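One example given next:
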Amino acid sequence: MGAQQSKEQMVFYGADVPVKISNDALQAVEPTIGAPKTEEIPSQLQVDQDSINERIESEVAKELSRYFTKRQQEFEESKDRFWSTNELILCFNNNKERPLDCWRAVDNFFEATKKAEKIRASLP
């Protein structure tokens, strides 16, 4: 039971045999029937390529701008910190006997550090 097929296999030879195509097969083929002609495809691809290139250029420009802005801010931050650090060191070296006279240099150093921390926190 089940070892043999219930119907024998039939093979037809010749061109006059009717062929039935299922609706699923027809629906799968229909989108290609209404597809644009091959002449239209390259122009559409060119438009897509142009828009992709514009978007890439825009994104690269944004990233470069962000990068250079960040570098400029880091440079300003390091410059301010450098001068305030040097001012503090010079003051302490010049006033070894009276380090409390360097309170302005200490305040400048702390302000430069706070400014640098704010700049760093605002960077992406």
About this structure: Residues 42-122 form one domain. The two ends are 74 Å apart (CA to CA).
